[in-house]
Automatic annotation (TrEMBL):
Keyword Electron transport belongs to the record: no
Family: Belongs to the glycosyl hydrolase 63 family.
Pfam family, one: MGH1-like_GH
Annotated InterPro entries: 6-hairpin_glycosidase_sf, 6hp_glycosidase-like_sf, Glycoside_hydrolase_63, MGH1-like_GH
Key words, A-Z: Glycosidase, Hydrolase
Residue ranges constituting the Mannosylglycerate hydrolase MGH1-like glycoside hydrolase domain according to the UniProt record: 40-412
Signal sequence annotation: none
Species assigned in the record: Patulibacter brassicae
Protein name: Mannosylglycerate hydrolase MGH1-like glycoside hydrolase domain-containing protein
UniProt KW Hydrolase keyword: yes
Amino acid sequence: MTDASRTVDRLARETLAANWRSGVREGVPYGYTCPATPRYRHQWHWDSCFTAIAWSRFDGDRAREELRTVLRSGDPRISPAVPAGTRRGTGFSGFLPHTTFWDRPAGWRRAPFYATRERWGGLATASIGPPLLPMAWERVATATDDATFAAEALEPLAAHLDWLGRHRDLAGDGLLTILLPDESGLDDSPQYDGPFRGLAHDGPGYFRLVERVRRAGYDAHRLADRRPHHVADVWTTTAYALSLHAMARLSGDRTWATLAARSERALVERCWDESAGLFRDLAGPGRRPVRVATWSGLAPLVLPGVPEPIRRRIVEEQLLDRRRFRAAVGVPSVSQAEPSFRPAFDRWRTWRGPSWVNVSWLLLPTVAALGYEREAGEIAASLVTAVAREGLREYYDPRDGRGYAARGFGWSALACDLADGVAGRWPAPVGGAAPVLGPLSGA
């Protein structure tokens, strides 16, 4: 273990422990890792999926509790389903919120901007987040060698995936639609500037967008028929396909793999831009390609059903091109060739250029598995070095590795896995985690 990897390991342990929160809300127990205090003190769905995977390296009990708490956020006492509809008579609709306010409802200054059912006092948003829970569930079950955990939530996880298919796969082709930019987790990414225009996350009209979606009951079918401000989102669909693949392995039911293949096929047939060598979001009812190059357009690289020639083009023409995504440190969130590339700190905007640890964690094991192990190791080493020097920050400048925004940021603990990759011990590619015992044996 190098000095940098030892430092990152220590920082990860300390940060995860310091950010842990637990208690009971409305009779529902919770235990989760807040992303960073004081700004990010709530639970975000995809943050918890990443931090649970990081926790599984150090404390299996907390890793499992983190994911169980994501599932409990769908409890009707915390998050009444929007739209309604239950699975097999249970109280859980399958809807899981993007953000849950376990400690207390959002304060009056920020509450109107959260996509809750009510303008005030809601305990969770009625918006979705990147649907990574089944993927994370499998990763934690595998890391902790816990077949019981792998099997315990098959029905609610299936309900969640069913809900997404009914309510966000608007064309029935496997591409998921987002109604708000932050439903993808990528908030202010320039890929949403065009589709949402003055209603984008960082603009003065965002409150109007949230209120419009709230008044429509967060019904994506209804809004898509009436308004142009929605996106068939590449990254959200990739996360969905990853979870469908994981569910197939967890349950042994190949129906989920068939659904994953449908999403992969739709991404290739409808979103792949052959001339540019990356995937494009599709905006509005006409599904117009969004011609901005962000890391989201590289995300299907991790899907096993995407043809290998496409995956290799993404690696060679995007990730390894120093004019585009091969930066000095990590993988920038926006291509360096884009006019909108802004790699430094911005108090009001995120995802407009800096490198994030979770992006490298998602992409680089697949890059290595495709045979580009040296290049993947170099990119990982650049980010691990920055983390060791700057601490677990929210994101890093891709030019020099300077750490920006929140300190003690939970999912940056995934840098421990990147340090393993630098040493040649890459974690399994996220699209094809090794099966665990028990329920996975028939997969």
